[in-house]
Every structure is written in structure tokens, then in C-alpha cells.
Amino acid sequence: MQATVAASLISALLDYLQTQGLKRSTLLQQAGLDSAALALPQRSIEAVHYERLLAAGIAHLHNPLLGLEFGTTAQPERWGRLGFLLRHSATLGEALSYQARFAHLVNSIGEGRFVERSDDVAIEWHSADVVMPAVIEEAFAAWLCFARWASGRNESPQCVEFSHRAQGDPAIYREFFQCDVRFSCTTSQLCFDPGLLELPLHGADAQLTAYVSAEFDQKARRAPSLETLRQLQAWLLATLCAPPPTLTDAAEALQINDRTLQHRLQTQNTTFRQSLDNARHTLALRLLVDAGLSIGDISHRLGFSEQSAFQRAFKRWTGVTPLVWRRMRYERTGLLNE
């Protein structure tokens, strides 16, 4: 599954880097982002863009501790709707349990697992892939900042451990976390006194948390079906040909059974037929840009049995025939040579 982050997190990082004197347009370009992609705070964006943005900031500012410093400025709004849920939890323990259950819906680069042990409580960092240290340091600093902000108390962990080496002066880490900070450990974790779980939060609202947590439960149930839909679209775009693939072909490629694929598509209010139609539409627009391909070539590539069937489908998608669309595009871009 492709790791993602919420647009709200990327927007917060962009805002922070701007306060450090960096130009927003340059940062967006280096991260491979369009500002329009950030318009919806809850939108999921591939995590690679977030990591590129962090890397660009570190390089421009010559500051390897950028992740840690960005984390110390965390506000609940950074996590979008999840931040709203956390800030209205009754206790720090309840907020941490919600964080553990739903954080992957906001940031799936890594997972903060909430672990209760005999002598302490820990939030352990786990990720399927190796990630840059700045990502982990931002997460740890942000979690602690939220706990301090929400409880109104300047509490500190018992210790902090990172699996990577110190990115800067270890004294800077100790000053922020106000505890022993260790590096090159077997895992990355925040360890603290279990008594802190009972700390009341000043924004507690049981009715709100019940409503929003139910919303997140529903979103969590839909997450696998959304990922399946994305995988299906990518597979269709890569494999479309004559004859067109069937639902059984797709299910086998995605390593699930036919019924599971149908159910997940229904959860996303679509069908295999609609997904195939969408993929054909997307690929048709891409292929029509290539003047070396005839309309017949494109029709065959998209798996249509006859060119006339492709032309009817394309007119349904766009309102014009493929040839007219190609001519209109060339005229707009000045590529048509009379």
C-alpha cells in the first residue's frame, strides 16, 4: 500500500518553511506538488511529496534538525479532523488510544503503537519502509507538544529512544524532551509514566468524541476498499488491451477473490464496468496526444472490438469525437502545422 499523508500536514509544513524565509512556489516545485492538491485538508497525498518537502527545507536551511523543530510547533489543526477528535478527548490516555487507532488515516508513513507495560507506557514507531529521521523526530515532537498543550501541563517522558543517529547536538533534543534521549537503539519510542494517562484534557467533550470517532471508524472500514480501487485503476491503465480484462482477471492480479473485489468497489459506489470505463477514458486522452497513433491504433489499445465503439464511448466522455478532440488540443497548444 502506498504511504500517504493528509494535505493538512503538508500545508502546515509549507507554512512553517515560509516563516523560515523560504519561497512557497519553489518548495512546491521541489516537492512535486500543485497548490490545488492541498485545497482539501483531509485529502490523502503520496507521502513521498512530504518527504521531498522536508528534504528541501533541510537543504535550503542547512538544518538537519528541521523535523524536530517543526514538530515543536504542532497544533491539533495539523492533523485535520483527527486533531479535532484528540483535542476533545477526556484524558491523555483516551487521546493516545484514538491516535493509535486512526493515525494511519492521516499519516501512513509510520505507525505509533500505544504499548502498556509493567513499569511504563510507550508509543513505539513502526514503519514498513525506512524513512528519513526528520519524519520520526517530527512525529515524536508533535505527539509530546500535543500532550503538553491538551493537558496544560509541561510533562516529560521518562526517556526517548531513536533508532537513528543524532541529527544534531544531542543537547537540543534533551532540552526539548526534558529527559534522557538515546540514539542508535533497536527501536524508536517515547516512554512515560502510566499515571500520565489519567491526565484530564481541558477541551473534553464526550458527545463530540463519540460522533467523530464513529466517523473515523467508518472511514477506517472504507480504507481497504479505497486502496483496492486505486490499485485497480493503476492495473487497468497498465494492462488495457484487446480483449479487455475481466473482473476475474483483475481480482487475480490484485490477489483477492471476485466477490471481495465486487464488495470493495460497491463500498466506493462503483463497479468493475465503471472502473474499466474510467480507465479507458483516462488512457484515451493520454494516447491521443501522440500524433503517431491512429484512431484505430488507440481503439485497439483500449480493448474496443470496433473503432466505431471507441468513437461512441469517447463522444459520451467528452462530447466530441476523438479526431475533433485531437485537433482542438493541437490548435490550443499551437502544435498543429497547416
What would the average pLDDT be, to the nearest integer? 88
Q: Helix/strand-derived class?
A: alpha+beta
Strand content: 5-15%
Radius of gyration: 25 Å
What distance lies between the first and last C-alpha atoms, to the nearest angstrom? 48 Å
Element string (H = helix, E = strand)? EHHEHHHHEEHEHEEHHHHHHH
Q: Could you describe the 3D structure shown?
A:
The chain has 338 residues and is of the alpha+beta class. Helix content is 55%, strand content 9%. It has 15 helices and 7 strands. The protein has helices at residues 7-19, 24-31, 47-61, 66-71, 81-87, 92-102, 133-151, 170-177, 206-239, 247-254, 258-267, 272-288, 295-301, 307-318, 322-333, and strands at residues 4-6, 44-46, 111-116, 121-126, 159-161, 180-182, 188-192. The strands form 2 sheets. A 5-stranded mixed β-sheet has the order 3-4-7-5-6. Strands 1-2 form a two-stranded antiparallel ribbon. Strand 5, helix 8 and strand 6 form a beta-alpha-beta unit. Helix 2 crosses helix 3 (47-61) and helix 10 (247-254) crosses helix 11. The longest helix is centred in the middle third of the chain and has 34 residues, at 206-239. The chain is elongated and about 70 Å long.
